[in-house]
Amino acid sequence: MSEQARLDLQRRQRLGMVEAIWGEHKTAAQIAPILVRLQASGEPALATRVDEAKAIAVAELLAADGATAALVPQLQHHPEARGLSLGDPLPPRPELGHVVVLSGGTSDLPVAAEAQLALHWHGIASELLLDVGVAGLHRLLNQLEGLRPAKVLIACAGMEGALPTVLAGLMPQPVIGVPVSVGYGVSAGGQAALHGMLASCAPGLAVVNIDNGYGAAMAALRILSSGAAAAS
Amino acid sequence: MSEQARLDLQRRQRLGMVEAIWGEHKTAAQIAPILVRLQASGEPALATRVDEAKAIAVAELLAADGATAALVPQLQHHPEARGLSLGDPLPPRPELGHVVVLSGGTSDLPVAAEAQLALHWHGIASELLLDVGVAGLHRLLNQLEGLRPAKVLIACAGMEGALPTVLAGLMPQPVIGVPVSVGYGVSAGGQAALHGMLASCAPGLAVVNIDNGYGAAMAALRILSSGAAAAS
Amino acid sequence: MSEQARLDLQRRQRLGMVEAIWGEHKTAAQIAPILVRLQASGEPALATRVDEAKAIAVAELLAADGATAALVPQLQHHPEARGLSLGDPLPPRPELGHVVVLSGGTSDLPVAAEAQLALHWHGIASELLLDVGVAGLHRLLNQLEGLRPAKVLIACAGMEGALPTVLAGLMPQPVIGVPVSVGYGVSAGGQAALHGMLASCAPGLAVVNIDNGYGAAMAALRILSSGAAAAS
Amino acid sequence: MSEQARLDLQRRQRLGMVEAIWGEHKTAAQIAPILVRLQASGEPALATRVDEAKAIAVAELLAADGATAALVPQLQHHPEARGLSLGDPLPPRPELGHVVVLSGGTSDLPVAAEAQLALHWHGIASELLLDVGVAGLHRLLNQLEGLRPAKVLIACAGMEGALPTVLAGLMPQPVIGVPVSVGYGVSAGGQAALHGMLASCAPGLAVVNIDNGYGAAMAALRILSSGAAAAS
Amino acid sequence: MSEQARLDLQRRQRLGMVEAIWGEHKTAAQIAPILVRLQASGEPALATRVDEAKAIAVAELLAADGATAALVPQLQHHPEARGLSLGDPLPPRPELGHVVVLSGGTSDLPVAAEAQLALHWHGIASELLLDVGVAGLHRLLNQLEGLRPAKVLIACAGMEGALPTVLAGLMPQPVIGVPVSVGYGVSAGGQAALHGMLASCAPGLAVVNIDNGYGAAMAALRILSSGAAAAS
Amino acid sequence: MSEQARLDLQRRQRLGMVEAIWGEHKTAAQIAPILVRLQASGEPALATRVDEAKAIAVAELLAADGATAALVPQLQHHPEARGLSLGDPLPPRPELGHVVVLSGGTSDLPVAAEAQLALHWHGIASELLLDVGVAGLHRLLNQLEGLRPAKVLIACAGMEGALPTVLAGLMPQPVIGVPVSVGYGVSAGGQAALHGMLASCAPGLAVVNIDNGYGAAMAALRILSSGAAAAS
Amino acid sequence: MSEQARLDLQRRQRLGMVEAIWGEHKTAAQIAPILVRLQASGEPALATRVDEAKAIAVAELLAADGATAALVPQLQHHPEARGLSLGDPLPPRPELGHVVVLSGGTSDLPVAAEAQLALHWHGIASELLLDVGVAGLHRLLNQLEGLRPAKVLIACAGMEGALPTVLAGLMPQPVIGVPVSVGYGVSAGGQAALHGMLASCAPGLAVVNIDNGYGAAMAALRILSSGAAAAS
Amino acid sequence: MSEQARLDLQRRQRLGMVEAIWGEHKTAAQIAPILVRLQASGEPALATRVDEAKAIAVAELLAADGATAALVPQLQHHPEARGLSLGDPLPPRPELGHVVVLSGGTSDLPVAAEAQLALHWHGIASELLLDVGVAGLHRLLNQLEGLRPAKVLIACAGMEGALPTVLAGLMPQPVIGVPVSVGYGVSAGGQAALHGMLASCAPGLAVVNIDNGYGAAMAALRILSSGAAAAS
């Protein structure tokens, strides 16, 4: 049972993405050595779903070991996005274009922030457009022009999740819907938003799992890279 | 087992509504005598969820019995609304105001028509506004002024069911959302639309069961009657 | 990521409702500035789903900032309704009539209280009728006369949620059913009550999301305002 | 694969019940020999969920075989209850008392009839009280005195299924709730009624599977037999 | 909002049961006065789903008020059954016969104990038969003779919940199945056990809500009282 | 779109199993050429979930084509198992031991027969033990000795699906539970049986999808082959 | 109720897509005039989910009306894709690159064909790669090189739906997963495949509703257009 | 209520398995005496789902009682597997062959460890193969040769749970899939993985309940014992 985690170090070469660590069900003692090994392999090292207590525990583990103590200053916790990184992101790739991340309400912020962090970690620029939920439609309609330059739109919404539907009916870009697990009653856990996005009457809306900001960012990265190949 | 159906003949006095017959799981042999007894009691006689074959079977049963054969000309099938009526509706009550019934798409028409028929049967005027789904938002935005005189809005939608949410964010009247069982995959059966309406971020949207055009009409009737009481 | 929340300040003019803050998934640091900005805009400032600890944290944040410290005395926590308000409600509008809020049992009280607080905040008077669950039917039957003057009835119930059905079979007014998430086993989370209300055999019962006392109040407000328009 | 069905011929001695054949997923070719064998063993032979076409097919199979042709006159189809019997029921046992079967609406009739047939087949008398759904409560309240002599109440209801709850809050006898699969939207298939009965706020309501009129009858038979033992 | 709980004090006369307080969602401040009022009305006072901390809080509230301090010695917490009582149970009624409560495993004990406490509170004697789950069938088969004198069998089981099915196939008495919310994966929350009991191939098994030991006891009480009436 | 189906002809070498055709969603025009190509490759050719009408259509297609008309006599429909085969099964492998397939009731027969056919097609002998459902437990207990020589037990059951649990508590062999989609209400579609088997309190019960007689047979084949390897 | 369908004729200008008619719940009498009006507006006219009988009925309606009889030769039914078109598709746009549509099995073909037809209707070229399900992994691994030139991959799969996950772990392009409603038991209706794709451990997999081949095509079109913009 | 737990001490003789204690819903006071009694009966004593705090509490209970204090040194907590044992496992049985336990990711480790501990406790050797999830397929493909000598493969996976499907398509041995409750959104609780494994397109994959590492080990033990019998 002492076997080491088997990392997928060829992932960047194969898919153009780093292997991020999904931190939610892992202990600090499991996360710390994976971060170190990723960095030692020349890969950008990022863990998602890491709260502040776990981030501190990772820092303490690195500090307690002579072989890794020097790495502590490179460890950075991103509280809003619940991310933990070691070292630097990939260099910026402005030629791929940028992404706009929209959110229906303030409560969707952690998911939007996770998407932005994941994009940043792969060198992709993004903007955040907060609080454009459809109950006050003018807030979104007033921003449409600002969305036109974006190559991909990521729309995060909880409750009934109608934002991506309305957005995809107004704008021609790829729209990735991210259901968010805020809500209560029938929307608790994000199922109503998920089903609303999948059932959307707007054509060509693509969806990822509830709260999966990271996945939305990677779907956007695939799209941007495909477009870049087209351009060359 | 030969007991006769126990009708709720005081319902109109108590609630201001006639007792409509829910025809879906009843045979023609069960529906025919109830219609006759309702009419004989001076009540408007209406059955919902009656398809054409069952309507014809009811007509044949009435025609075959000397005591009821004279009623056949008063029997009327409403194919779009799937309703079957015997005799006349209640007289018009224009002083209560009117209702607008909106639908997201053509496929929602049977449910919208059931709501209109039920309103008409209680003397309430209504208008239909078809095909104003949110995938082409301008279709709804162009109609808002026409909605202002209505006392109640009934919004029927299948798929993700976002129409009532967008509507309730734009207009101040009572909005009753009716989820419609059109769709496939996660929207099959109308569950996605139902959950989307219940989870709506728009404040004060009230909801009835899937496909329940009749119920939406009765909720509107309660509202109109309550307002009329206020006015007096 | 430092963008400010985008408030819907025209909501009262458009819909006749203030924009309440849904506090459940927001931090004190997010709630405090929104309350301040709402008040500064001349809007009644109300947050729902705020427990006592979060309310105290908001107070401390306001107190710690010179620009807002003077507002602390206007901050009020409503423990039973789990609401937090800054400043005064809208002035009373007795001409719109009043609402009766019924509850099946004592455990439904927080939801009933939320509905009453939301009505009060919009100037609407309400009465509470507690513990009229259908297992002891005489408790409700004894109160029917007292319900007649009300313009709208809001019925909160957990478990099997039969109260709104029985009520809507007895009284002609608009009845808004609010399923409550008390119960265990199949009624845990309020799903059994929600489905029972949607499937009701009583005609014209309208339903809102589980525990959505605020939404029921806003639906009632739409009805009262519509009736007022009728009266004028 | 030619093995004969393994009948549970000791069931009556062990449990006081005959082994009824659940006919829904069986072919006429499977049902016919089981009926014959049950009768040959001196057991009352009853199959449930047999529609008219299948009943005719069984009759034809019996008629076509010289060894069984003489049994055809003893074969009886009970269309309302969807039952098929061969030979006679058990003799009446009036000393056990009788059962009242209530139904919310006419559409619940097949389930109520199945319960009555199963009771009759075990020698138990029953009465049917039709159309006492809670949307017109006076219909039930007017009948309470007639229910007092019954030893067990079986209450069949679809839609929201509130009838057994209201009944069990009014009467002291054992109440067995039978959810019925009539309804649409959230009540389609009888799930809302089932959950409503299980979640009932009325104490001591016992429930059987959706549409399980036969099971309700057998639960009543267990109760009556247990009371008879008490009496001796 | 200061209205007092509306107690159902005629319940014992009407149904033969006391009104027990469901304590799970009530505060100590809500429970204490209800217990006092029930006792003052001459009713046995029992609350279910009260853990030790809440029981102590109730005791402290009673002690702190001069009018109720003298009642504290009559307050009794039943930890295994999670019940809190004030004063004495109803006197024993041995003429009604006794109940056996069976449990599949040790983890079902709290539910079984709740059933036993509720029976005891109504004067009914019961025995407990623990750990007779069907994975080791001989444990149950060895006990069958001891079950024969019981008038009612209550069978509590989590996981797949097969115990009541096997029991009802072996014994002729009324069997009440109580699904228990122990288990994980598909059996988490007791849904698998509930569905297994409802779908049982054993005839006449009646079921109550998950973890509803109190309801099973009240169903048994209805049966015992009905039998007693038969006997007289 | 005219591309030919891509067969997995190395499956037998890799896994020891032939590639059976899942016929349920395929047309006769799709099934016929795959059967022919499998046979031409020297593979035993078997399609599952083929009803009689589709089998006849396949025969007609083969007959209509000169290149395949000679194959028609080798085509065989297995009505109980709903299978369609072309040519011969694999030769018997008695050294691997045999399997017993048990069924709770007659309605489970098609699933049990599919398992037996699939075993036969791979050279494995099997016996069928019908109607040993747990409502009449003695029927199973009387057969235990006959089960001892079997290497694997496959237990098919609908309704509550308790048979595999009871069996796995009594016998030491590998037990594979197959939930069957017979039942109504909560057991409709086989979900209750599936969950009951997964939640089983009997240790080491393995489960396959609802109605998946073929899959159970293949799991048994894997076990038998693994044991044979052990024996050599 | 005679209002005409409100078409979204600006959709192509706004989103780059034509408005396809969702034909499943529409009658031939509703579909025919919409096709005619779309064509009259210069839009490519396409209806999805139209079976052969409905297609013939549309043709007959057009033929019966002198104003439209001349259009019949332009009407074309696409049986595999279940599509009905009037007139010509948009001209080819090879500069946008092409799409590969993969399917796990032959039963997924209708969904894959719908995606291909929708792409073709918008001028996009596509290839089909059939039967590359993961149970015989070599079939997919052998085709990877052929996938490299594609700009977008659409992967259709029923059952457990693992194909898009495996594909997205191997290839860097945008991958759109389409769950297909083939399967039985837990995979009936496509829910298992849908959840498997949303829960995928492969990063950046985007998903559309079950059987939504049209939606997958439109998501691909958005991506291709976005890349084209990048290229210019 | 003081009855002692009824242990199934003949289980090893009957089934070849010890009776493990499922510790999750039991208190330390319930677990301690069962462990002692098992050991006193000569049975290996093992409890599953025991966290460190409960293990310490058991140790303290044993230490506090003179009759059991001497046993404390034999008590061992297995933190990764969440197991608690008293005394020694059964002696090694290398002649039965060994098992390989695979896991998709590090988060699946507790379930894999529980399976290994349960095997070890019955004398079965096992190896762990960690982190071979299908998002980086080469990690699994590189290990296939090492899997050939194993008699049984146990594959643990959360998220979409595709690992057992891919594995069962590549290797001929018995494969037991164990869904793991790691994931979020649609995969929260392990339902997506469970359904994916049951719906698998790979033939002969057998499945146990979510997180049921113990059950998978017992299924493997049944297989190994059956093979051993074959060999003798």
Summarize the topology.
Eight copies of one chain form a homooctamer.
Chain A: H1 11-15, E1 21-22, H2 28-40, E2 45-48, H3 52-64, E3 75-78, E4 83-86, E5 99-103, H4 109-121, E6 126-129, H5 138-141, H6 144-147, E7 152-157, H7 163-170, E8 175-179, H8 191-198, E9 205-207, H9 213-231
Parallel strand pairs in A: 1-2, 5-6, 5-7, 7-8, 8-9
Antiparallel strand pairs in A: 2-4, 3-4
Helix pairs in contact in A: 2-3, 4-9
Primary descriptors:
four-stranded mixed sheet; 232 residues; Rossmann fold; globular; 2 domains
- Please report the distance between the alpha carbons of the first and last residues of chain A: 48 Å
What is the global morphology of chain A?
A: globular
How many beta strands in the DSSP annotation of chain A? 9
Series of secondary-structure elements of chain A, N-terminal to C-terminal: HEHEHEEEHEHHEHEHEH
Q: Give average pLDDT of chain A, whole number.
A: 93
Low-confidence stretches of chain A: none
Largest interface: B-C, 47 and 47 residues
Our estimate of the beta-strand percent of chain A is 15-25%
**Secondary-structure class of chain A:** alpha/beta
Would you state the CATH class of the largest domain in chain A? Alpha Beta
Q: Write down the domain tally of chain A.
A: 2
Oligomer: homooctamer
Task: Let me know the largest β-sheet of chain A.
Answer: 5 strands, parallel
By DSSP (H or I, 4+ residues per run), the number of helices of chain A equals 9
